[in-house]
Design goal:
The protein folds into two domains: 195 residues, Isopropylmalate Dehydrogenase; 140 residues, 3-Layer(aba) Sandwich (Isopropylmalate Dehydrogenase), CATH 3.40.718. Helices cover 41% and strands 22% of the residues. Helix 1 links the parallel strand 1 and strand 2. The protein is an alpha/beta fold. Bound molecules: 3-isopropylmalic acid and manganese (II) ion. The site of manganese (II) ion (MN) has 2 residues, from helix 8. Manganese (II) ion binds next to helix 8. Its cofactor is Mn(2+); Mg(2+). Pathway: Amino-acid biosynthesis; L-leucine biosynthesis; L-leucine from 3-methyl-2-oxobutanoate: step 3/4. One of its GO terms (biological process) is L-leucine biosynthetic process. This is 3-isopropylmalate dehydrogenase.
C-alpha cells in the first residue's frame, strides 16, 4: 500500500479546528496499516483573499491536482463579500475537479436525538449533482437597481451531466440492501430539465433492473423527509434541490455538526474532496466548541473512496460509539476532546 497524499484546505472559522481533529482521527485509523499520510496545507479562504485578492489560482489548482484527495474544513467569512469565496474557491474546486457526485449521507445514529418525535430507521444517502444546475453561474442581470431589473440564473442540465450522476446513483442503490432510488425534481413546473431527469432515470433503470425507482416533487420530498424519512434509500437530485434537501437531512439526523459529505470524481481524473456540510460558523470560531464529528465522518468517506474500507468502518464505528454515549455524558466536550476521544476509540 502506498501513502496517501492529502491536500488540506482547512479554510476559515471553525474549519481549522475541525480539520485538526479529522487529521488526528485519520492518523489513528491508519496506524499499523502500513499506509501513511503526507499532507500539504493550502492557504485558501478569507485570510488569503484579504492578503492577496486571490481565491484559487491555477497554480493552487495544479498543486492540488497532484494529491490523492482533499480534506476541506469550511470556507467563508463575514468580512468577505457574499459569493466571492463560495464561487471563487469552493465551487471552483468542485467544478474544476469534476466533482459531479456530491454524496451526503442522512443517517440517524442510535442515541442521537432527532427533532422528529418518531423518526424511525433513518439511513439514506443523497446523491446531489455537483457540477451543473443553477450553480454554473449562467445568468445575468440588466437594469440593476431599477424598478425594471431583470435577474436570471439559468439552471444548466446536460444529458451527459444528468446521465453520469444518475448512473452513479443507481450503482449506489444497487449496492444497498433496499435497492431503492428516488428521483427528486419538479417536473410539473421545470418541464425541460425535469423531463430530462425523468427520461434519464427511466433509461438507466434498464441497466439496473433490480433497483426500484420512485419519484417525488421536491416540495413533497420535504414533507416526507419530516413525516417519514425511513422511506428513503438513495435520493438523486440536482445541485440546488440537493443543497436544500441535505440541510434538511442534517437537521433530522442530529444536526449540521454531524453531517458529512464527499465531492466525488468517480472517474478519478482528479482528486475527490471531503468536507463537513456545515460552514465556517464565525459565531463560535476560536472557542473550541465546534463538533468535529462531521469532519471525522467525512474522513470515513475519504477512506472508503481510497479503498480503505476496514479503516473507514473503524472510524464510523468510533463515531457511532461516541454518539451513543453522549446522552449520559455529564458535560459537553470541546472540539479537541471529541477528536481525542474518537482517535482513542479508533486506535481501539
Ligand atoms: C454546501 C454549501 C455550498 C453549496 C455553498 C457554501 C456554496 O451550502 O456545501 O452545501 O451551496 O453547495
Ligand atoms: Mn448547503
Amino acid at each position: 500500500a502506498r501513502d496517501i497524499h492529502l491536500a488540506v484546505v482547512a479554510g476559515d472559522g471553525i474549519g481549522t479546528e475541525v480539520v485538526e481533529q479529522g487529521l488526528l482521527v485519520l492518523d489513528a485509523a491508519l496506524a499499523g496499516s502500513g499506509v501513511g499520510v503526507s499532507t500539504t496545507d493550502f492557504d485558501l479562504g478569507a485570510r488569503r483573499w484579504h492578503a492577496t485578492g486571490e481565491t484559487l489560482t491555477d497554480t493552487d489548482l495544479d498543486a492540488i491536482r497532484t494529491h490523492d484527495a482533499i480534506l476541506l474544513g469550511a470556507i467563508g467569512d463575514p468580512s468577505v463579500p457574499s459569493g466571492v469565496l463560495e464561487r471563487g474557491l469552493l465551487l471552483k474546486l468542485r467544478f474544476a475537479l469534476d466533482h459531479y457526485v456530491n454524496l451526503r449521507p442522512g443517517k440517524l445514529f442510535p442515541g442521537v436525538a432527532s427533532p422528529l418525535a418518531h423518526p424511525g430507521d433513518v439511513d439514506f444517502v443523497v446523491v446531489r449533482e455537483g457540477t451543473e444546475g443553477p450553480y454554473v453561474g449562467n445568468g445575468g442581470a440588466i437594469r440593476v437597481g431599477t424598478p425594471h431589473e431583470v435577474a436570471n440564473e439559468v439552471s444548466v442540465n446536460t444529458a451527459f451531466g444528468v446521465e453520469r450522476v444518475v448512473r452513479d446513483a443507481f450503482a449506489r442503490a444497487a449496492a444497498r440492501p433496499r435497492k431503492k432510488l428516488t428521483l427528486v425534481h419538479k417536473h410539473n413546473v421545470l418541464v425541460h430539465a425535469g423531463h430530462l431527469w425523468r427520461r434519464t432515470v427511466e433509461a438507466v433503470n434498464a441497466e439496473f433492473p433490480d433497483v426500484t425507482v420512485d419519484y417525488l416533487h421536491v416540495d413533497a420530498a420535504t414533507i416526507f423527509l419530516v413525516t417519514n424519512p425511513s422511506r428513503f434509500d438513495v435520493i438523486v437530485t440536482d445541485n440546488l434541490f440537493g443543497d436544500i434537501l441535505t440541510d434538511l437531512a442534517a437537521a433530522i439526523t442530529g444536526g449540521i455538526g454531524l453531517a458529512a459529505s464527499a465531492n466525488i470524481n468517480p472517474d478519478r481524473t482528479a482528486p475527490s474532496m471531503f468536507e463537513p456540510v456545515h460552514g465556517s460558523a464565525p459565531d463560535i470560531a476560536g472557542q473550541g466548541k465546534a463538533d468535529p464529528t462531521a469532519t471525522v465522518l467525512s474522513v470515513a468517506l475519504l477512506l472508503d473512496h481510497l479503498g480503505l474500507h476496514t479503516q473507514a468502518k473503524a472510524v464510523e464505528d468510533a463515531v457511532a460509539a461516541d454518539l451513543a454515549g453522549r446522552g449520559s455524558a455529564e458535560r459537553v466536550r470541546s472540539t479537541a476532546e471529541v477528536g481525542k476521544d474518537l482517535a482513542a476509540r479508533v486506535a481501539g
